[in-house]
Amino acid sequence: MASWGSYVFELCRINANQGLTAEIDWNYTSWSRRCRKILIGLVVRGAKTVVVRGKNRILTRNRKKPEMTVPISYFNLCRTYGLNAGYYMVGIDVNRQGAVNGFVDRLYGYCLGRSGDQGGQQNWVTQLINGSATGAQVAYGFFFSPEFMNNNYSNEVFVTILYNVCLNRAPDPDGLNNWVTALDNGADRLEVFRGFAHSDEFTGICNSYGIVRGSI
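The chain above was modelled as a monomer; its predicted structure follows.
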């Protein structure tokens, strides 16, 4: 019988694309030490996002009662090792899904300062993949979510996060000052958000993750 490592590492394919997405095939894995070893191996290889795929077996501890859901222990283990658990939609190319998961995880990190929760990650990824939401709409959902707004960020912090999310860089002093001054003088945050979300830079970011930018 082949060792678990010889076939489990079908799961360990790291995509160079939005790199650092690892694919786990739960059809060939079991729990406890194996799961932990796999996740440690992914961290060592530089993975940031893990996309789970599987049929209808060995997705729970009880093999006599197969389910299509991934147990919470998996998400807890990912969090322990600093990985985004990701979300997998059956029948959709895993490389594309890895990229979309990466886009959503990036928003969670910059806007909310945390990894995505299971329900939230699934919701955003599903909308982006099925086309019911665009990149700009999903970004709007983060910037104007109760969780984000309850932080009561200053105008400077708000603009800084916009630079990171939409332009993929820290703000330059002049640009930061101009936007903050506009907000201090009564500009609406939604209009400022639109200025960033409709930029060529954000369009490029969305394209790099394989999603449509759209508009607000």
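The longest strand covers residues 21-25.
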